[in-house]
Amino acid sequence: MERSREFRDSILESDVIIYDLNTNEFEEVDYVIKTLKTSKLTKEKTLIILSSVMTWVNTPPKTKVEGEEEEGAGEEGGEGGGEEEGEPSEPDSDDVPAEEGADDDAGEAPKKVQIQYFKESDAHLRVPHKRFINHKNLETLALSAPKTQPLLKVHVLCTGIRYGKGEGIFYDHFKNAWI
């Protein structure tokens, strides 16, 4: 990648910068993020990173054993131990009996483990597939940029099914989803 003055200026002139980690070189995206992070911005800019769900694929499920308090309850916004929006409120088919600390002689029913949804604040927990470690590193670099650059807004979108390069077979499925 050629790091010309013209390329740098075009980055800094843009209000919205979009990079797809699946089709761009690591070095180029790294350069763009570091340029935005270290430059003196005069107006708000938005960086959108298109990544892959493969940066989460090896992340162990987030669980909660019935009857136990959620770890870190009350840390986010001081709302207390209430459930986050989008989290399951009732046991469902994802509940499984807990194996840890089950007392057979107590005569109690085994406690169930409830699968929890990940929140934005859980991004640091993600464990990528080994081929997507560079994606995760670029995501982390981009997400850290607003701490030193308050005029930069960063959004990371993890895509599922990629289409647009001859995947016409999915057309009817996408059309039905729109209708």
Oligomer: single chain
**SSE-based structural type:** alpha/beta
Query: Helical amount among residues, as a percent range?
Result: 25-40%
CATH 2nd-level architecture of the largest domain: 2-Layer Sandwich
Task: Sum up the overall morphology in one term.
Answer: extended
Q: What radius of gyration results from the CA coordinates?
A: 22 Å
Number of helices: 4
Instruction: Kindly report the CATH topology of the largest domain.
Output: Barnase, Chain D
- The total beta strand count reads 6
Unreliable residue stretches:
72-93
Largest sheet: 3 strands, parallel
Strand order of the largest sheet: 1-2-6
CATH class of the largest domain: Alpha Beta
Mean pLDDT level: 78
